[in-house]
Design a protein that fits this description.
single chain, 352 residues, DNA polymerase, domain 1, TIM Barrel, ten-stranded mixed β-sheet, two-stranded parallel ribbon, 33% helix, binds iron/sulfur cluster
Length: 352
């Protein structure tokens, strides 16, 4: 019988398991505290649990954490963390410090099946979805790493490898564990952002979950023609359908939807695009992040000159839309936006 992984169960499921093993729900709450609050993964180290309960547990369950195989520091202070999953797959997370804030970009799938033309992860294709445990582990392991520096991840963005809403159930479960203030990892939902290429049914569903996390949309174009060329998903959910779903997404009074816009020379960086973007975002509480394209070998695109990026930004700012130019971190270590790719097989590993 395969043993269940405790890391990835909701606190309520840990309580149920404790009862199944003949113990009280309180023992389940203790388990949740050890795993999610203290990042302790060794059952033997959970010293306030009775010995016979720990033995029962060890027969039925494990606490399985992806192995942190490599830590790749960038000259700009960010770090790519490469995890080996059971089997032969690898994923990466990126830690991005910025003064007091430390943002962790987590992956939700091994590879990605959406094939956005400017993204190296898309070139890999989809290998598999991550489990809720594998998603939460990226946060817990990062926090253990930062503990040595007396720091902690402060913000989490679901923008690494994969499309979060294509792995909906595991992502929502991970969000519940991460935001559970009593027995989970206790992140305020406002510090978590889920990014999507625009899966309309997923956006609607997420809005109904009462999770109150931030929503980010990978927009990247202002016409259906260009967007469909860059992002095949636009053929299923076009700009009109996407913007309508964004307008339905429930926002708290000071919350805004983030729009990610990768800037590609002569593709989507014209002033006409900027003006169209202003019109598209009318009636949306929006913040736009312009991301100058991060090059990778074999890419068909180029980064526009700085003056062009700033002119584009000015049009949005003049229209009253908060717009920042986001210089990606970790470009030198293949950790910047759209650059994440790990070899699929550990055995044949060569750096990407
Ligand atoms: S941008 Fe996101 S959705 Fe598109 S291919 Fe890359 S990882 Fe997948």
């Amino acid at each position: 019988m395969s043993r269940v992984n405790l890391l990835g169960l909701l606190p309520s499921e840990l309580e149920d398991l404790a009862v199944e093993l003949g113990a009280s729900r309180y023992r389940g709450r203790q388990l949740a505290t050890w795993i999610y609050r203290k990042s302790v993964f060794d059952l033997e180290a959970m010293t306030d649990l009775p010995k016979d309960f720990r033995q029962e547990l060890a027969e039925r369950a494990v606490v399985e954490v992806p192995e942190l195989e490599r830590e790749m520091p960038s000259a700009d202070g960010s770090r790519k963390l490469v995890f080996a999953l059971n089997g032969a797959s690898r994923i990466s997370s990126v830690l991005m410090p910025d003064d007091e804030r430390i943002t962790l970009c987590v992956s939700t799938q091994v590879g990605c099946g959406f094939a956005c033309g400017f993204c190296l992860t898309g070139v890999m294709g989809l290998e598999r979805n991550l489990t809720a445990g594998e998603i939460v582990s990226q946060v817990l392991v990062s926090n253990r790493l930062l503990e040595k520096e007396s720091r902690r991840v402060t913000h989490i963005v679901f923008m690494g490898m994969g499309e979060p809403l294509a792995n909906y159930a595991a992502v929502v479960k991970a969000l519940r564990i991460l935001t559970d203030a009593k027995l989970g990892v206790a992140y305020p939902p406002r510090r978590i952002t889920v990014s999507t290429v625009g899966l309309v049914p997923g956006i609607d569903k997420l809005g109904r979950e009462d999770l109150k996390v931030n929503l980010a949309i990978s927009l990247h174009a202002t016409t259906d023609e260009v967007r469909s060329r860059l992002m095949p998903v636009n053929r299923s959910f076009d700009l009109a359908a996407l913007l309508a779903a964004v307008k339905r997404y429930p926002l708290a009074s000071r919350q805004r939807v983030f729009f990610e816009y990768v800037m590609l020379e002569d593709v989507n960086d014209a002033l006409d695009d900027a003006q169209r973007l202003v019109r598209l975002l009318r009636g949306v509480k929006a913040k736009v992040n312009l991301i100058p394209f991060n090059d990778w070998e074999g890419a068909r695109f180029r980064r526009p000159p700085l003056a062009r990026i700033l002119a584009f930004q000015s049009v949005l700012l003049d229209a009253g839309i908060t717009t920042t130019v986001r210089w990606s971190k970790g470009e030198d270590i293949g950790a910047a936006c759209g650059q994440l790719r790990e070899p699929l097989a550990v055995a044949s590993a060569s750096d990407s």
